[in-house]
Amino acid sequence: MEDDYESLPTGKLSAQLLAGAAAGIAEHSVMYPVDVVKTRMQSLRPHPVADYRGIGHAVTQIVQLEGIRTPFRGLSAVVVGAGPAHALYFAAYESIKRHLSPRNPGHSSAANFCAGGIATLIHDGF
Distance between CA atoms of 110 and 107, rounded to whole angstroms? Predict the structure, then answer.
């Protein structure tokens, strides 16, 4: 039988850091190629051959003309920053949430809201 989600151990700092880093790296790895296409489509001075009729056409053109690796160019730099930043965010959020609502952590909307805001400030400062 599976453990109830709420009963899973979340108090360990190492688990929080690892979970945050993994989530951040996964999110940025999936979204990075989408951001590349979005940026290309929004560019005021696009590449001379960049005549995109839509998202699918843009992806096709970028891959055909520049190679399959082009949408991922620069991803390693993003991953290097995303891992530590998201690890810090997740650990800060969990710690602040427990500090603001020690009797019933995770069940106070106000504590969750404040923890999210403070953790965001910490994350963005990193």
Answer: 9
